């Protein structure tokens, strides 16, 4: 259940490593015990906060009751760390109604992608994000992910959205470094890398952090990379970062979160179970991942 509302900060801090939590399943139902244990472990590993119901959380396969139950479970286990709730949809009225309902929860933010499937104009995208930001109580992170939504946010649109007092950051999967640089240079939106292999480059160029599925594993290393970058210790950050590259490649070699769940399941923290049409990782990839993770875990 929601806890008493906390005031939403006028300058929220989205820096550091945020984990877009997987949703564990057991026998077709959400496995809340596994979700809580995962959240507690990650909180102890130094992450900055959590995203519930991101794409990695298979939110598209969860109904509203399941989404709210997952949010409650994470809130209870997060040791006070901030929580961002993911949204998706293409019906503006339904989405703003959902956002009004979510205002009862003490969220650090809402992660909002463009509406998928319908491919509106830039003017339509401005209306979409402004209406959602107006409807809620929490700061909005724009989730720029054209390869999932089919809609590309231009640099001009992002900078126009930055004028809205509640739109405070971007999870950047846009694939256009010039656009990312322009948003960083503008300075009004906090830029988080949303592409795991781009974390280093984005943060070295002035991004504040990352929302990265890979950070479920080797979490302390990812946290350390971001800390070292924040302290301008570039060579040390690079030395921590480079061994993570093959891990990131393998985690995205098949549709996310299949490989990630396979690896987490191998460690015993959940079942290797996804909701159709998402599928388990292949046995071959799971074996390679397990071997690599074991190598990376050696002192
Ligand atoms: O759920 C997320 O947020 C993320 N989703 C990306 C994706 O699979 O589209 C990957 C990223 O690591 C986090």
From TrEMBL:
The UniProt record lists the EC number as 4.3.3.7
Q: Give the signal peptide as a residue range, or say none if absent.
A: none
Q: What is the lineage of its organism?
A: Bacteria, Pseudomonadati, Pseudomonadota, Betaproteobacteria, Burkholderiales
**Record protein name field:** 4-hydroxy-tetrahydrodipicolinate synthase
Q: Which family does it belong to?
A: Belongs to the DapA family.
Q: GO annotations under biological process? A: diaminopimelate biosynthetic process; lysine biosynthetic process via diaminopimelate
The gene behind this protein is dapA1
Q: Which PROSITE patterns match?
A: DHDPS_2
**Which residues are annotated as site, described as Part of a proton relay during catalysis?**
55, 117
Which CDD domains does this UniProt record tie to the protein? DHDPS
Might you report a single GO cellular component term?
cytoplasm
Taxonomy, superkingdom: Bacteria
| Keyword Transferase in annotation | no
Where in the sequence is the active site? 143, 171
Compartment(s) = Cytoplasm
Instruction: Please verify whether the record's keywords include Ribonucleoprotein.
Output: no
The species this protein was found in:
Variovorax paradoxus
In terms of Pfam families, this protein maps to: DHDPS
Alphabetical keyword list: Amino-acid biosynthesis, Cytoplasm, Diaminopimelate biosynthesis, Lyase, Lysine biosynthesis, Schiff base
The residues the record assigns to binding pyruvate are: 56, 211
The biological pathway it contributes to is: Amino-acid biosynthesis; L-lysine biosynthesis via DAP pathway; (S)-tetrahydrodipicolinate from L-aspartate: step 3/4
């Amino acid at each position: 259940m929601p806890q008493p509302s906390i005031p939403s900060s006028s300058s929220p801090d989205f820096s550091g490593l945020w984990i877009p939590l997987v949703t564990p399943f057991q026998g077709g139902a959400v496995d809340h015990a596994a979700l809580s244990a995962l959240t507690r472990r990650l909180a102890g590993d130094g992450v900055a906060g959590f995203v519930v119901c991101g794409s990695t959380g298979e939110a598209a396969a969860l109904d509203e009751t399941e989404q709210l139950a997952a949010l409650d479970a994470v809130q209870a286990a997060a040791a006070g760390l901030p929580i961002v709730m993911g949204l998706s949809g293409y019906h503006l009225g339904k989405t703003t109604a959902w956002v009004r309902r979510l205002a009862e929860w003490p969220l650090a933010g809402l992660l909002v992608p463009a509406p998928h499937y319908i491919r509106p104009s830039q003017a339509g995208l401005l209306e979409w994000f402004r209406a959602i930001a107006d409807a809620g109580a929490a700061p909005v992170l724009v989730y720029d992910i054209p390869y999932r939504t089919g809609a590309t946010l231009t640099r001009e649109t992002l900078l126009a959205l930055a004028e809205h007092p509640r739109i405070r950051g971007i999870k950047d999967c846009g694939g256009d470094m010039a656009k990312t640089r322009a948003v960083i240079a503008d300075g009004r939106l906090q830029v988080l890398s949303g592409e795991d292999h781009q974390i280093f480059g984005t943060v070295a160029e002035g991004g504040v952090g990352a929302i990265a599925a890979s950070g479920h594993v080797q979490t302390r290393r990812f946290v350390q990379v971001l800390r070292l970058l924040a302290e301008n210790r570039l060579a040390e950050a690079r030395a921590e970062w480079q061994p993570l590259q093959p891990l990131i490649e393998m985690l995205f070699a098949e549709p996310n979160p299949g490989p990630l769940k396979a690896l987490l399941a191998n460690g015993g923290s959940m079942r290797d179970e996804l909701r159709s049409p998402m599928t388990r990782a292949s046995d071959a990839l799971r074996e390679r991942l397990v071997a690599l993770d074991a190598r990376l875990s050696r002192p």
